[in-house]
Write a structure and sequence with these properties.
Two copies of one chain form a homodimer. By secondary structure, chain A is α/β, with parallel strands linked by helices. The first copy, chain A, has 15 helices and nine strands. In chain A, β7, α13 and β8 form a beta-alpha-beta unit. The interface between A and B is large, with 37 and 37 residues.
Chain lengths: ~350, ~350
């Protein structure tokens, strides 16, 4: 049962308890990862299946989480488009020459998952050799979030260049989205081919756009991704932040589950999106910076929002913060498994 | 009538047409301001009533907007708390020593508006001497946004220190909020004393917190500000961004109007907050980077959301972007006054 908890919850099937995994569960809050990072840059780890599998396993050895998460960065496939990028400490992906014109978009190379990111498949296979029981989750960046990195050149709060393109050259924006959509479908299919049990699309920044813009320019591409993956029969999650104004539209993307940030109570989300989608989330990552009582109180509040204890995958609203004490994470995982058992 | 358009709309009274002003209408998109900034830093302009009034008047000479906005920065009153801060180009307010402990909070000096920010009153008076017809709007930062600048030391997307304090030391956070609330009431009263016709509270970053946190830690302080100002009888606006998940709570703050960012259609906001609040907004500032047809199409879409043409102040969803062509702004103002006339 433990092997299937995550997948069953994402499909709305009954489980023995509420499954839990944490975004960035393998990352800077863990000592093994910090040590490895002193010897290898992120991209070197991500491109080495042995190292990537090792990083993915560290939290599984320490915590009773219900899945591993492939160690990768959403920018990895950019290399296949012919783009020069780096991952800068404290900044994230930085694209050397941003994509801002029709000519820039047309100059993108054709992406091939097997040629450009074979190591992601390798990391999944290596994980499955080493971990007999728990599944591995694959992921990719959502099309808006990928586009915003390419257009801005790096993370940006206000996304001025992305929004300029949307209003001033919508056809160029749409063309870029089409290219990223194709790329993402190929990239996620590769992860399924190598054994990913479920997939998450991280469209972290999509909450920056209006409902009008989402419906006009983004719903189509996101749906195209989930439609293309549906025949494979593995569950999918669409994650975004600050996107309360988009909820009814997010429910139409074709994902099996919505990843919800810490802003809104899951019960309110359930009422707006209906009963058919699973929900994932949504403890505030900052709650783990407080003491054990606060963690339990806040986690209990999340569980109480979905009292039927079904179609819920416990997670944070965003990634684990680097300064988080691993003790708190361990306590959280135990608490959720104890308190998240369905009532008879 | 033109003199009263803004105030009447904020009070829900009929107007001859939809009033319009723009956040950052006096700013880097205008040549006079850019020229002045080559000779004076922001704080020097803000602390000189003659220069501040001049900057406030520049957009009124160029556009038929319905109000001036006092030239100030939300960080101005920090000096009265004994804090050393600067406004750094491209970054915004930077606080030399962030406020992160109970001792830091207790060390804040007592604020006195007449001692610490008299020049803001002076700038309002000078404006009213020079502009016979149109009113001036005063403003201050909202308590959460001010607190986040003090705690983080500068603008921050994820507000990690602010959220840590909220969970790990809630009593310290609440005490800081109380101090900022007192300060803000005094600061806004000074602006009313000198002739501000209406007031806006810019709680720009409050959308980063959950509904639970807003209700527990922020609704009280924000209400206290509007309750203290209500006896003066001048309308108030509460502005925030990315706060769709908070709308029902924002409706309980006691403000006369809500400033709404570009994410959500005003009609949907109206349905959630009810008929008694005026709404301000919410054209995407990026729309002004496109051509005249796009500006008209998008502005018409905003007006169409509130077809009764009442209780609506037209504005952008956020500030005018520095790269905006003043021609587009002029066209927008004319279009809103023409198309925003109530139907018979």
């Amino acid at each position: 049962m433990r092997r299937d908890r995550l997948v069953r919850a994402l499909r709305g099937e009954p489980t023995d308890t509420t499954p839990i995994w944490l975004m960035r569960q393998a990352g800077r809050h863990l000592p093994g990862y910090r040590e490895l990072r002193q010897q290898h840059p992120i991209l070197e780890i991500a491109r080495d299946p042995e190292l990537a599998a090792e990083v993915t396993l560290e939290p599984l050895r320490r915590y009773d989480v219900d899945a591993g998460v492939v160690f990768a960065d959403i920018s990895l496939p950019f290399a296949g488009l012919g783009l020069d990028f780096s991952i800068d400490p404290g900044i994230g992906p930085v694209v050397a020459r941003p994509v801002r014109t029709r000519a820039d978009v047309e100059a993108l190379q054709a992406f091939s998952a097997t040629r450009d990111v074979p190591f992601v498949g390798g990391a999944i296979e290596r994980f499955l050799e080493l971990e007999a029981e728990r599944p591995i989750l694959g992921f990719a960046g959502g099309p808006f979030t990928l586009a915003s990195y390419l257009i801005e050149g790096r993370a940006s709060r206000d996304l001025p260049e992305t929004k300029r393109l949307l209003y001033a050259e919508p056809a160029t924006f749409d063309r870029l989205l089409d290219r990223l959509t194709e790329m993402t479908i190929e990239y996620l299919r590769l992860q399924l081919d190598h054994g990913a049990a479920a997939l998450q699309l991280f469209d972290t920044w999509v909450g920056a756009v209006s409902a009008r813009t989402f419906e006009r320019h983004l719903l189509g591409p996101v749906r195209a991704i989930f439609d293309a993956l549906r025949p494979r029969g593995r569950p999918t999650i669409y994650f975004s932040t600050g996107s309360s104004h988009l909820l009814e539209l997010l429910a139409r993307t074709g994902a099996d589950a919505l990843g919800v940030d810490a802003r809104e109570p899951l019960g309110a989300v359930r009422r707006r999106v209906g009963p058919s989608l699973a929900l994932q989330g949504n403890l505030d990552p900052a709650a783990l910076l407080a003491g054990p009582e606060v963690v339990r109180r806040e986690a209990a509040a999340v569980l109480a929002e979905l009292p039927e204890r079904r179609s819920h995958v416990f997670n944070l609203g965003h990634g684990v913060l680097p300064e988080t004490d691993p003790e708190r994470v361990g306590e959280l995982v135990r608490f959720v498994h104890e308190a998240g058992v369905p009532r008879r």
